[in-house]
Every structure is written in C-alpha cells, then in structure tokens.
Amino acid sequence: MTATTSQHGTMRAVVVHGAGDVRVDTRPRPVPGPGQVLLALEWGGICGSDLAYWRKGASGTAALAHPLVLGHEVAGRVAALGPGVTGLCEGLPVTVHPARPVGDGALPDRIAGRTNLYPQVRYFGSAAFTPHTDGGFSEYRAVDADQVRPLPDGVDTERGALAEPLAVALHAVGRVPALRGRTVLVNGAGPIGSLVVAAARYRGAGRVIAADLSSSALAVARSMGAQETRDLSRGEALPEDVDVVFEASGAPAALGAVLRATARGGTLVQVGNLPGTPVPAVLGDLVTREISWIGSYRFVEEIDDALLALRDGVDVRPLITHRFPLERAEEALSVAADPAAGSGKVLLRLSGG
Fold first, then answer.
1. Which among 22, 102, 149, 160 has the fewest CB atoms less than 10 Å away?
2. CB of 95 within 8 A of CB of 303?
3. Which pLDDT belongs to residue 223?
4. Which residues lie closer than 8 Å to 86 by C-beta, 6 or more apart?
5. Domain ranges (residues) in the chain
6. pTM for the complete prediction?
7. How many CB atoms are closer than 10 A to CB 299?
8. pLDDT on residue 160
9. In terms of DSSP H, where are the helices of 186-293?
10. Is residue 308 classed exposed, middle or buried when 0-12, 13-18 and 19+ CB atoms within 10 A define those classes?
11. Average pLDDT over residues 28-33
C-alpha cells in the first residue's frame, strides 16, 4: 500500500542525503491509505545500518540513490486509521514489524515460514530498492496495518522501540533449540550482544558469559544478565569449552579465538554481520573441533516474542545510555558511532513531548 500525503500538514523527519549528510527535513504529513494506519512515532533506536548510511552512504550492498528517512527501531501511537482497518484504535501504543516481503511470499519447502530468508524484502530505512523504503525516524509514518504490533500493558513506547533488536536476539537464541541449562558465551557486548545475553537468560540458559574490548559495554551486559564477563582489552582470555557461543562482534579477527572457545562438538551462532569482502580469519578449529557454525539473520515473527518478554519483565532499560530530541539527530548519530562515548543504545525522541 502507498500512503498519500496531505497538503495541510507537515512533519519533521531525519533524512540522510549522502555520506556525512543527515538533515532534519520538513515533509508532508502522510495520510493512511486503504489497509494502513497513521502512527505518531515517539521513540526510535539508532542501529548500525543507520550509522552506515550516514557515514558511508551505503549499508552493505545497499547504496543511497536519493534521500532516505532513517530508522527501523520505532514505537509510538496510532493517530488515524485508513479505510478498511479494524482491530486497532486511535491512541493505542504500538511498535512495527519493519519487514515486508516483495512478491508472492512463496518459499521452498526447506525454508517454509522463514520469511527473513525471502530473497527480496523491503525493510524500514533501507536503500535496497529504488525507490527506497523510508524508515520511521519521523514524527508520523503511514504503515500497513498488519505490520503494527500493539504493546502489552505496562510496556511503554520507549521500551517498545527496542522490541525490534530484542527480536533479533531472540531469533539468534532460537537457532539453538536446546539452550536451557547450558553454558553460553556472547562475544561482543554491544547492543545486540547485550540483548542476546538477556534473551539467553530469558530462554533458560545456565551460566552466561560476555566478552568485549569495552568495559562500559561489559557493564551493560552484566546489568542485562551476564553472570561473568571477560575484558579482552585487559588481556583476559575467552573461556574454554563453552557449549554454545554467540559471536556478536562481527569482527573476522575474533573468529579464531571464538572458535577455540567453543567446545568440541559445540555450536557457534553468528549474529554479528561479517564483511561482504575478503578478510583474513583463522577457521581451522571449525573442522578439527567439529563445530556447528550457524548464521542468524534478522527475525521472522520473534517481535511478538520480544513483546511478551518485555511484558514478562525482561528489562532493556540498562541498554539505553543516551536520549536525544529529533532535532539533534546528527549529534545522536555521532555519539552512537563514537566508541569513546561508551554508548549502548542511543534513542531519538521523535514526538510526544
């Protein structure tokens, strides 16, 4: 569905125009079309892909061909219903499933239901297609009604904005069905790594160990449930013979040590995005230790599980280290991109006060 725009109202949006060029632009306020709702967005979380578009004008192979509204981690309230929409009401607090498969949705039997592996997906705040798919770092956004997810009672929109990255973590944890009671290592304690810690604890893992080069990131990981941490910047080594390892740093140089930390016959889940270009990496232990190395990409419907986890008391607030108003979006991006800033999840206050 394509929303129309109103000539009688405007809104502000965080728009990247090219590498190093992000602006708060004024745009027409959308009007929801058939099957759509208009959201008044309140909070948005900055992700690595937002930083990539801002810094490099591209995220992976998706390059900017024209300006793009950033943001896919958002929450707000229903502001208006388009024709034919039922089951939702104005004022309802919601988040958004940001993915929409392009095409008939059919998948081979071997990956039936795994819509995250569909060959073409429009994702909020992505330049993978032209025209691009605008994201949600704006005061208003028209959204297909079936992408809207109401927040459970007691879950505010600030925490609701983190349902999307928590869904990524829950999908990764779900790649290892028999996790309960097992020892887990999470290498890389950035926002996704710390959420993997929380997701592993939520799914019943035994001892959870987090490792990182940043002491501030490890402090967040501890507050998210890690019972033990390893500060690699101080020469502390990864543990040995760990049943299940989640590699969340995306650093090829870390792979040798991470594989060595994985127990013989153990499982390594790759959560951190690895480069799409040739890089050196030490992989010998993959073979000699018979390690199962599993990829994990985005999520299917785990955003619903994430909302239940938030309802059940999984506390994502320790991850939030900075909050900025929408008009200071460039400063917020700078803080999120600066390792020296010690940031976890940086949020934008999009509207609502």
1. 102
2. yes
3. 97
4. none
5. 4-165+299-349, 176-295
6. 0.95
7. 24
8. 98
9. 191-202, 215-223, 255-261, 284-288
10. middle
11. 97
